Amino acid sequence: MIVKLREAQASEVLELTDLQAEALRTESEKFRIQVETDEVEESKADRPALELDYIAPGKYRIRAGNFVGVVVAGDITVMIQPKISFRHFAEIAAYSFDIPSSGRQSVELRDEDAFQVLVARWFLETVRHLIPNLLISDYMEVRDQLPTKRGRVHYLPTYRLWLRGQFVVDATFEEFSLDHALNRLLRRGLQIAAAIPNLGEDDRKLALRLLAAMAGVGEMRPSDLRVGTDRRSQHYETPLQLARCLIFGRGRAIDEGGRRSQTFLIATPSLIETGLRNMLSEHIRQCERKPRYQVVYPLGDARPDLIFRSSNFTKVGDVKYKLFDSWGDMRADLYQSVFFAAAYRTRESVILGFTTRKDADLSQVEVGDHRVSAILWDASDESDPKASSAVVVDKFRKWLTQSQGLGQSADAGVPVFQPAG
Known about the structure:
By secondary structure, this protein is α+β, with helices and mostly antiparallel strands. It has eleven helices and 21 strands.
């Protein structure tokens, strides 16, 4: 059975056996995400990739979380597609992974069910520039039996070897080698990429060629997943992000009907937020790539997705991965936006969302002394993602140049927000 649905949406009522329902629950529990439920840190809820709503005996409704990808459980395959057109989703995701513009252009893919292939191609695009010339060697601790003393000698094992007539030294020493955690993660990513069934032949050959160039690197260890980069290995950052996506998203593989399938899921909220922030910071110098958050005592940090600072102003914004047509769809987001503006002692805030309507254009709203603007990304199927990106950047530039004088009368045509009741 194949079920197609969009993230954060529910399927039609399906007939499932108890075994099928349990298999889906078990598989989706492997992929959970911390979902923000309020405007301050630590206000989060743990959600699985899929939730099963019981309707009646043998009847269920599958509800997708904020993930895209494929869940394979027994004989059921659930395909979760993005809320927006896949081409627009891929454009933003490429910014999230810091793919250079040349790489973003070379990995365009329109198949909505092939996000794993897209991530694999992004990974190959970035790692090909590392191997072999920019791979880092490091000192690694090695234990071996040597003909002469070196490093730290293990005397009791050495004594036992001598008793058996083996006149060698059991010692632990450091060796300058390519076989360290960073390179093992890259190698594991290449192994997964090369095994993806739908990967193009040219990409598969590239993955195998890069693997051959890492012959001196061993198999990945569980502890390697915790390793980070430093100043010396900063150029590993993006390839490692993508390698981890492939490793964590791989799930378990099964054979069904002679066809190999995999569970592969990517959590979308942080992916979209990071991608849009990186896109804006690439074109607008006032946009902080790594935001400095404001403490709101005793709640914690107020964490808007976008912070714009200059010597003259501070403005804040929030990314909402939703489709909007009017302010009526954004009431809760409007409250949150005003909270962020108050936390940063600014009167200007913005909400960045998505729309599929060409004529959607939300006017500014004044809430007391605060003014909230809405900028919408045109995510309709017929629109070009790069054109939509350019329009969003242009609208942000215009918003940043607006007057700061908000204590006077409202501008003509700007609606004043009136709370219900």
